[in-house]
Amino acid sequence: ETGVTQSPTHLIKTRGQQVTLRCSSQSGHNTVSWYQQALGQGPQFIFQYYREEENGRGNFPPRFSGLQFPNYSSELNVNALELDDSALYLCASSSGSPVQYFGPGTRLTVT
Amino acid sequence: AQSVTQPDIHITVSEGASLELRCNYSYGATPYLFWYVQSPGQGLQLLLKYFSGDTLVQGIKGFEAEFKRSQSSFNLRKPSVHWSDAAEYFCAVGESGATNKLIFGTGTLLAVQP
Fold first, then answer.
1. Which residue of B3, B51, B101, B104 is the best one to mutate when testing the A interface, meaning the one whose CB has the most A CBs within 10 A?
2. Is B59 touching A (CB cutoff 8 A)?
3. Collapsing DSSP states into helix, strand and coil, what is residue B56?
4. What is the dihedral of CA A12, A59, B9, B89, to 10 degrees?
């Protein structure tokens, strides 16, 4: 059974640019959630996708958007990057259960 | 609003000593409760979970946690800590409903002395 995978592992962007992060859910999982973890903080919920539809959103501006594909993989897009967007972005998958399984994360640095 | 408090930012214990990490939550109904562990630069690994039933739950790596409704607590324990347990530990509450989002505490960083 393949776990949750994320790509890329690290990336560096400049303020004002756009970025796309990718996540492949665990086999059989139809729900993907994205979290932002700033340095020294706990993860904060960005949004969740269930069967290709957004299923809930945290307190993040519209420049954070996402997609889920028919194979349940997902993308997180962030437009007009700001310095405060520098963080570890975590993807988690689940299926019919409150338990979420996390990927290794993508470390985004905005300069 | 739902929230999770982990009062201890940083704890140091000696290898072989017992460990208790504190977690308090604020939630209107019976919560789903979780403990996750994060090694440096890594994602989160699920240690254990509580949904209902027996209030003492066992997890991986020899960890256990006890749900105490009267104290709104879900403390994590381990009888004998190993050097490999050094990591950051997060307590989380899972919301029931359409969106099963997790609300995390700020974490407790565990250091283990030889």
1. B101
2. no
3. strand
4. -80
Residues A22 and A18: their CA atoms lie apart, in Å, by 14
A97 neighbourhood in chain B, CB within 8 Å = 100
Look at B104 and A58 and tell me if their CB atoms are within 8 Å: no
The letter for the amino acid at B64 is: E
CA dist B52 and B31 (Å) reads: 9
Distance (Å) of CA B51 to CA A20, A29, B57: 35, 20, 10
Residue type, A29: H
Contact A48/B99, CB-based, under 8 Å? yes
pLDDT tens, position by position, A3-53 = 999 999 999 999 999 999 999 999 889 999 999 999 999 999 999 999 999
pLDDT of B34-93, one tens digit each? Answer: 999 999 878 899 999 999 889 999 999 999 999 999 999 999 999 999 999 999 999 999
Out of B43, B96, B105, the one facing A103 most closely (by C-beta) is B43
